C-alpha cells in the first residue's frame, strides 16, 4: 500500500503549515497581513536547531524557536502597528532578514551536523488501527500538540470574547476603538501569536522532520501557509483542511521517486512540477471563489484620529 | 539657511532615507560586534570591496543593474496601484528567456541578437506579469498574493530547466548550457565586469520618469494608482491602464534577468538571482518610488551586496550576513516615522520649558 506512507508524510508536513497558517489567520483577522511568515518560520527552525544542539533537549529547541519567532514578529508589530509602516514591505524585509540571519547565527556559532529531535510516538491501541493507525497515530508529539492548539485557537476565535474583539478590530477598528477596545494592543497580541506559532512551526522542520539546519530550510512553505489562509477565506477549519491538502501535494513531491518506480507517475514529470502545484492551485482557487470575506481593515494601519 | 521650496520638495525625502541608512549601519555594526568581529574592519572591507579598485567598482555597478531594473519594474506597477511583489520570479523568467533566446539564435550577428534577447525577455515577462494584472483588473483578485505565489512557480520551473532539459553535460554542477557569444552584452571598459546593463537601466529610469511625468498615458496610469474610482469616473479605461502598467512592470523586472544572463553569468544556475527581486522592492521603497531616486538607492544596494562579498572574506563573517544586512536595511527604511515622533517629542519638550 503506497497510500499509507504518503498520507503519513502529508499529516507530518501539514503540522508546520497548520501552525503557521492558524497564527496568520489570527493576525489577518485583526487586520495585519504577515507576509513575513517565511521569515518567522526560518527564525523558528534556527531557534529549534540551536536550542536542541546546545542542550540536547528538543523541548528547549521548541522554546527557543518560539522565542525567535516572537522576536521577529515583535519587529514586525512595532514597525507596522506602532509606526504604521507598510505591512507588505515590512513582511518582505522580515523574510530577507530571517533568511540571512538564521544562517548567519548558525554559522557564527559554528554549529553543524544533526540534532536529536523528536521521535514518533505510537499512541497505544489507536496506532494499531488498520489504515488510520500509521497515518494519524504514529506521529511526533508536535503533531498531536498542533491538533490541540488548533482546537483551542478555533474556539478562541469563534466562541470567546477575545476572538470577537480580534474580528472587530480587523473589520472596523474605529468602531472597536470607540467601544473601548485597545486596537493596537489586540493587533500586537495577534501578530505576536502569529510569530510564536510560525516559530513553533518552523522548529518542526529542524526538530521532527529533517533534524538538521541549512539556509532557507523552509523552502517557500511559509508562502504556502500564507496562501492557505486567504484561499480558505480566513476560516480556521478550512485553513486546516487546505493545509492537509497542500501538505499532501508537498509529500507527493518528496516521494515522487517511489511513485515513478511503481510507474504511477510518468518519468517526464519530475518533482519540481509537483512543488509548483500549491502555488498554482491557490491562484486558481482565488480566481474561482469570487466573494471572499476579506477583513475590511486588512493591511490598513490604524491611526487614532 | 532657508532652502527654496522647490529644493525642499526634492530633498525632503532625502533626510528620511539618510536616517534609514545610518540606522541600518548602526544595527549592523552592533550585530557584527556581537558576533565577535570588528565592525570597523568589516565596514572598511565593505567600502574597499565596493569601491577599492576599478574592477571592484565595476562589480558594484554590475550588481546595481539588476537591482535598478527590478526596482523600476516595481515602481512602474506601483504607480498604477499594482503591488508587483513577483519581481523575484520575473527576474528568473527573464533569465530563462534570455537563455532560450541566447542559445537558439546563435547564427545572428550581435547587433541583432542582443536586441532580440532583450525584447524576448521583456515581452515574455511582461505578458507573464499581465496575467496577474488581468486577474486584478477583471476579477478583482488581490495581486499581492498572486504575484507572491508566482515567484515560486517560476523558481521551480527554473529548477526543472536547470536540472533536466537545459543542464550542461560538460559541467559537473547543475547549470544550463552557456548562451552564444553573440548574445553577450558588450563590456564597456575592457577587463572589468561593467556591461551594457547599467547603461540600459539608467536610460530606462529616465524614460520611465519622463513617461510618468510628461505623457498622457503616464498621467492616466498614475491617476488610476492614486484613486481607482476617481479615474473611472474621469473616463479613464482603468483595465487598460492596469494592463499597460503591469506589462511595463513585468518587462522591466525581466530585463534584470536578461542583464544577469547576457551581461554577467552567461548561463543560469539555481539561486543565481535569489533575493534580487526583494532587494529591488527595497530599493524602490528607499528611492521613494521615484524612477530617478531609484537609481541612487539601487546603487546603494549594489554597493551593499557587492561590498558584502568582500566583507565576508575580510572580516571572516558567514555568507548569511549579506542577506541579514539587506533585510535590516529594508526594515530600517520603514522607520521614517520615528523622526517625526522625535520631532514632536522635542517640540513638546521645548513648549514645556518655555512655559
What does this structure look like?
The complex is a heterodimer of chains A (305) and B (355). Chain A is mainly α. Chain A has one domain (3-112, 144-288): Orthogonal Bundle (ABC transporter involved in vitamin B12 uptake, BtuC), CATH 1.10.3470. Chain A contains 13 helices and no strands. Chain A has helices spanning 3-29, 37-55, 58-82, 87-108, 132-136, 141-159, 161-171, 173-178, 183-209, 221-231, 236-254, 256-261, 271-288. The longest helix of chain A is centred in the first third of the chain and has 27 residues, at 3-29. Chain B is mainly alpha-helical and 355 residues long. Chain B has a domain at 63-303. Chain B contains 14 helices and no strands. Chain B is globular and about 80 Å long. The chains are: A mainly alpha (305), B mainly alpha (355). The interface between A and B is large, with 47 and 50 residues.
Summarize the largest interface: chains and residue counts: A-B, 47 and 50 residues
Mean pLDDT of chain A: 88
CATH topology heading of chain A: ABC transporter involved in vitamin B12 uptake, BtuC
Largest sheet composition of chain A: none
Q: Give the termini distance of chain B in whole angstroms.
A: 28 Å
Total helices of chain A: the number is: 13
- According to CATH, what is the class of chain A? Mainly Alpha
- Which sheet architecture does the biggest sheet of chain B show? none
Tell me what portion of residues of chain B adopts beta-strand conformation.
under 5%
Number of domains of chain A: 1
The ordered string of helix (H) and strand (E) elements of chain B is: HHHHHHHHHHHHHH
Q: List the total number of helices of chain B.
A: 14
CATH H-level superfamily title of chain A: ABC transporter involved in vitamin B12 uptake, BtuC
Query: What would you call the shape of chain B?
Result: globular
Give a quick precis of the structure.
With 305 residues, chain A is an all-alpha fold.
Question: Could you give the topology of this structure?
Answer:
The complex is a heterodimer of chains A (305) and B (355).
Chain A (H helix, E strand, L loop, with lengths): L2 H27 L7 H19 L2 H25 L4 H22 L23 H5 L4 H19 L1 H11 L1 H6 L4 H27 L11 H11 L4 H19 L1 H6 L9 H18 L17
Chain B lengths: L4 H30 L4 H13 L2 H26 L7 H18 L5 H30 L3 H21 L32 H19 L1 H11 L1 H6 L4 H28 L10 H11 L4 H24 L5 H13 L3 H19 L1
Helix pairs in contact in B: 1-2, 1-13, 2-3, 2-12, 3-7, 3-10, 3-11, 3-12, 4-5, 4-6, 4-10, 4-11, 5-10, 7-8, 7-12, 8-10, 11-12, 12-13
